[in-house]
């Protein structure tokens, strides 16, 4: 059992960490989230049919734990006078700068919109799967996705998105 769990974490841990980074908007919070969720998964690992989909089970734990952490933090959030230093676009290279712009824009979205976008487009889940994970209807997922995409279009620097689209040869402007 322990070897199977360790093998799962070794092969799929980075993927779930990337998902958590997009959900939380913060690398350190994402590491804490994944670590907490892996602990929860380990407690039930012996009951899971590991030939099926432990990824889906861990994804559900990630979303639910993130939601409960967000609610708890929202209730006790304290504004700070100074913001922490973050690397600027010049520190990351062109591709990294675009990725940083996307992460910053995602972090500014409401939690439900961010969750819908991350699960739909990063985790590549269907609307039905996202609805099941978020505990809402497919129509609600569609609404959160549409509103999130509209907000992302407003929040992302136009030249960053257009330049990246031209590099990739797509028609997005």
TrEMBL record:
Residues 17-76 form the RNA polymerase sigma-70 region domain. Keywords: DNA-binding, Sigma factor, Transcription, Transcription regulation. Residues 100-152 form the RNA polymerase sigma factor 70 region 4 type domain. The keyword Transcription regulation applies. InterPro entries: RNA_pol_sigma-70-like, RNA_pol_sigma-70_dom, RNA_pol_sigma-E_actinobac, RNA_pol_sigma70_r2, RNA_pol_sigma70_r4_t2, RNA_pol_sigma_r2, RNA_pol_sigma_r3/r4-like, WH-like_DNA-bd_sf. The keyword Transcription applies. Belongs to the sigma-70 factor family. ECF subfamily. PANTHER family: ECF RNA POLYMERASE SIGMA FACTOR SIGM, RNA POLYMERASE ECF-TYPE SIGMA FACTO. This is SigE family RNA polymerase sigma factor.
